[in-house]
Amino acid sequence: MKRIVIAGSAVAVGLVTLLPAGFALLRPVTVLPRIELAPGYDLVDQNGRRFTSEDARGTITLYSFAYTGCPMPCDAVFDVMRGVQAALDTVDTGGLAVRLVTIGIDHRRDSPGALTELAARWGANPALWTFASGDSVRLLRTVRNGFGVFYEGMPDSTYRFSPAFILVDGVGIVRGDYRIGVPRAEDLVDGIARIAREARAEGVAHVMYEAAHFFACYSE
Amino acid sequence: MTWRTVLGLLVAAVIVTIGSAVWLLGRRPVQSFGSETTVLSPPMPAADFALESADGPVMLRDLRGRHVVLFFGYTFCPDVCPLTMQRLDRALDLLGEDADRVQVVMITVDPERDTASRMRQYVSQFDPSFLGLSGTEEAVHRVATDYGIFHAKVEREDGGPYTMDHTATVLVLTDTGALVLLWPHGMEAETMAADLHTLLGG
Q1: Which of A47, A213, B88, B147 is at a distance of 20 to 30 A from B43, taking alpha carbons?
Q2: What is the pTM of this model?
Q3: In this structure, are residues B43 and B30 in contact, taking their beta carbons and an 8 Å threshold?
Q4: What's the rounded Cα separation, in Å, for the pair A201 and B92?
């Protein structure tokens, strides 16, 4: 009897140890981490209409940052965004809407008219890709304080900033923060697809996704 | 012990591990929350804030030890805010004695008109235990942004007092100050109470 109790205890301890270790090592499901809440904001889009964080709620949203007349590194940013836009046709989001948003950080030049021209130049599909900006206070609160993207006006009217791409899920939680170099469009599309798969998961699949969050099984 | 036996045991251990994980997680309270509730598991660290109540400064860390239900609104709000506050009051009634472990906090998105004393007067209409907070425009903006709350002044065409557009999501924080639940606008009091009951380990 004593042996059975000892063996049973050993199995129980082993299982408790194996549960997190096994799941974390085997990683049957990987997810994008829930990083933080995306900021609430109130901007104006390229059509002169109010564009707020509530407009993005319920959609998977990829944010980028640039400004009119920006020489570098905006071309690389727009190239990536255009690549994501083109690749979205190939992604099965199960009916979940995806939105691309570029926030213009220059409150003096990024007027709705200028943003419209910028959108046209880069082949933005207006139904998919929104350009928005606002006054200096709103931009500071949204971009620098909210998304944590540093930018600074220079004496020659350019801006010093590092490219950043931020992926937000439909609930308003930041799920991807890409700001070391310029990411590949396919990596961002993969992130969008992962969020979509997770959002659609039900039953046991939903439990597996929650387990992946619980055991920090994050995709590379 | 042959390699086949070792492999068999390994496969069995893996199957048992995954099966147990699924079974255990299936029993986690995650499954007991309302269908519209967003559950953050593990909970996310929530930003601290420093605002003003009628009795003086309040920081989020001052509320540690109680689960915090956080709502952003304003006292001139015609519909969304009173409805939400009524439902939160009802939810606490349904919780019974456990309500003592929950602190409802309403932060104004209209600091221009909502002073700390006005906030207290407003929230007390629903429940005297509710805490109303205000602050400088910058402080309110900062905390609203941190919690993903959009808000903007809307001037009325008829020249009447302005209104505020704002996110009506309700956020629930654990007693250690971590964000754990998000309730969309329109959540019923019964669901709120059930979620809180689950969160409190009931």
Answers
A1: B88
A2: 0.83
A3: no
A4: 32
